[in-house]
Amino acid sequence: MPALTRLVAQLPATLPAAVLVVQHLSPDSTGQPLVDRLSEHTALHCQLARNLAPLQAGSLYLAPPDRHLLVKDQQLLVTKGPRENNFRPAADSLFRSAAVAYGPNVVGVVLTGMLHDGTAGLDYIKRCGGTALVQDPSEAEFPSMPESAMRNVAVDYILPIHMMGRVLTELVGAPPTPPGSALIPEDLQMEAAIAERVVGTTDEVNRLGQQVPLTCPDCGGALWELKHGSLLRYRCHTGHAFTADALLEKTQESMEETLWVALRMMEERKNLLTSMASHGAGPWNVQQAEKLEEIKQHINRLREFLLNGGLTAQPAPTSTPDPNADSPLRLSPNS
């Protein structure tokens, strides 16, 4: 919120564009206090997004907690669709719907934040002819979101917060591209349609990519590896979507949880064997004692593995920057 309030404070009430905001919030929180806080810092008309509300210039719309914010046909769509990159609301789903609806007239901005949300979304915007901005990671409180975007997407601007308002005002002040004049990739149109309907079909996802021997960590369904864009991405037919980095981290969490359960079960088995060994006699008692020593070794190895960070994920391969792409405009505080 500090970065967001500093940014919107620079935007005039006459801004000839709508501002749509995704803030990662707890599902049981309420967004209205954040709307009130933003209203104290900007001349824009701030409101919590409502389903089917008209999209108006000079207004700021905040995605409600635990709901995706999309746009279509000059209005807002607020849905409780599947999580994308483990988030709902997700910047990726908003960026994709805006890119499909408005093409080159979209400007995507990624500010301070953790993990990878917004990276795939900026790629969608760039593929549809739009403009990508990120906060300079050197001044970001949590730099991983802007750094992820910079590693994977040919961003146009890398800016400190205090310079973003002027650049954004100049960008949206240019004459807009006429609707329908830009070619929107078919795969993004399909993904946007799936998000609007909340669920897709296997036939649709088959057209987007190739099924791979991986399962969705959220629903257990099959995953498809998507073949479009510069990022390695995955999605299931129910709508959960992941970049490779997000999927790697999600599966790491699931595996760690499974291993802790396994450790608990082995501890219980050790306790049971201890009781049995203390009440047994003869060769049977010796056999249980051997099993007890064996499981103690397994417990020690597994505990050491978990406590020493043996599950630390390595980043998935990133895309190779296009040598022909223009370098981003990186402005320093003194520019």
TrEMBL record:
Identify the keywords attached in UniProt to this record, alphabetized: Hydrolase
CC terms in the record's Gene Ontology section: cytoplasm
Pfam families attached to this UniProt entry: CheB_methylest
Molecular function via GO? phosphorelay response regulator activity; protein-glutamate methylesterase activity
Give the EC number: 3.1.1.61
Q: Which residues form the CheB-type methylesterase domain?
A: 1-175
CDD domains, per database record:
CheB
Q: Give the residue ranges for region: Disordered.
A: 311-335
Entry's transmembrane regions: none
Under InterPro entries, the record lists: CheB_C (IPR035909), Chemotax_prot-Glu_Me-esterase (IPR011247), Sig_transdc_resp-reg_Me-estase (IPR000673)
Q: Which reaction does it catalyse?
A: [protein]-L-glutamate 5-O-methyl ester + H2O = L-glutamyl-[protein] + methanol + H(+)
Gene Ontology process terms (BP): chemotaxis
Q: If you read the UniProt record, what top EC class would you report for this enzyme, in one word?
A: hydrolase
What name is this protein filed under? protein-glutamate methylesterase
High-level lineage: Bacteria, Pseudomonadati, Bacteroidota, Cytophagia, Cytophagales
